[in-house]
Amino acid sequence: PLVLGIETSCDETGIGIVRGTELLANTVASSMEEHVRFGGVIPEIAARAHLEAFLPTLREALETAGIELHEVDAIAVTSGPGLAGALMVGLSAAKGLALAADKPLYGVNHLVAHVGVGLLDPHENPSGGPAQEPSGHRAGNPGAEPDAEPDAEPEAGPRGMRRLPENTGALLVSGGHTEILRVGSLTSDVELLGSTIDDAAGEAFDKTARLLGLGYPGGPAIDAAAVAGDPHAFRFPRGLTMPKFEGSAQNPGKHRHNWSFSGLKTAVARAVEQFEASGRPVPVADIAASFQEAVVDVITAKAVRASLEHGITTLMLGGGVAANQRLRELLAQRCAAAGLELRIPPVSLCTDNGAMVAALGAQLVAAGVTPSSLQIPADSSQPVQQISV
Ligand code: ATP
Ligand code: MG
Ligand code: FE
């Protein structure tokens, strides 16, 4: 099926177009630049930016794919989770397009869409130009990247569609989420194995970068600063790793597969304060490297253990924090040691985009799932088990 996907859950306005598992267009405009001076995404500004970016982004995606709206078989849109006002812009636009073009509408789960993107064929840049990351407020068509992991053989699925391998897990790490999922079927069986109980991983990067005076967004800044630092200079806490939280495989504790990053953030703040109080220069690179090591260590250790204990054999990585070099390195090492196959999509498909929504929409169409009503609301806390609404 030819499916148009719309993503507006946070600061990216994404329109993607797929034919089955073939990626035809992935146009993304971001309002990140407008949030930089506030040090975080401001919901009202994001919603307004979606409104302004929507039509140009749609036009560019249709042009890149070389199709017209009336040719699509369905329209998929993120219905949640995300910022309510931002979601509403995409959802209203999707309903309008579905009504005008008389096409079925699928309201889909943003987190499951992050997993669905893993089914797309390894691709060339659809625009034919050089590979490019979404940046600024400009729309861009990110394509293949040199570090993209080659995809495995296509698995047969409904109507010849590629399907996820059995026992797939997904580790989603972004500014809003840190979750490990078991995905039995993308269209009917998704289970939450663990998640953060406070800050998301990307949020921890952003807050720590602010403490270190590294600016916003903090992930790329810490990633870069850490290169010159010693990851063992400070021993920062790994949250929820004490036996009372973790229990054993036979008798798991409540937080065995959960994360917590707020204690880590406090420990970094204390370290910075101690240097400032004593008038010594803050060792920014060492703190950045040690913080990053703590986050990456506990994320990868818990993700791999949760996977092994739930019979997962293939693990997919998604979310903006997937760009982190140390995370990719340590996760690859630990997956290899545990006999887990690791799949990491190109960064342009790990961060929020419309192609992932279209990819999940195509799976829903192919599986014969009933389309959504035109009355569906935005659900800012849509649970992961609710794949479509
Ligand atoms: P959502 O949580 O809804 O997916 P989001 O916009 O918060 O949306 P993304 O756009 O996927 O999340 O990712 C942004 C986050 O990723 C930010 O918190 C940013 O700091 C973090 N990030 C980006 N690059 C890196 C990196 N190299 N290392 C660590 N974190 C990074
Ligand atoms: Mg974002
Ligand atoms: Fe996301």
From TrEMBL:
Can you tell me which residues bind Fe cation? 110, 114, 352
Q: What is its main location?
A: cytoplasm
Q: Where in the cell is it found?
A: Cytoplasm
Map out region (Disordered) in residue numbers.
Answer: 122-164
Write out the GO MF terms. iron ion binding; tRNA N(6)-L-threonylcarbamoyladenine synthase activity
Keywords noted in UniProt: Acyltransferase, Cytoplasm, Iron, Metal-binding, Transferase, tRNA processing
**Top-level taxon:** Bacteria
Q: What GO terms describe the biological role, i.e. biological process, of this protein?
A: tRNA threonylcarbamoyladenosine modification
- Which sites bind substrate? 172-176, 206, 219, 223, 324
Q: How is the cofactor bound?
A: Binds 1 Fe(2+) ion per subunit.
Q: Which reaction does it catalyse?
A: L-threonylcarbamoyladenylate + adenosine(37) in tRNA = N(6)-L-threonylcarbamoyladenosine(37) in tRNA + AMP + H(+)
According to its UniProt record, which protein family does this protein belong to?
Belongs to the KAE1 / TsaD family.
Q: What does this protein do?
A: Required for the formation of a threonylcarbamoyl group on adenosine at position 37 (t(6)A37) in tRNAs that read codons beginning with adenine. Is involved in the transfer of the threonylcarbamoyl moiety of threonylcarbamoyl-AMP (TC-AMP) to the N6 group of A37, together with TsaE and TsaB. TsaD likely plays a direct catalytic role in this reaction.
Q: What is this protein called?
A: tRNA N6-adenosine threonylcarbamoyltransferase
Q: What does the record give as the organism's lineage?
A: Bacteria, Bacillati, Actinomycetota, Actinomycetes, Micrococcales
- Name the gene: tsaD
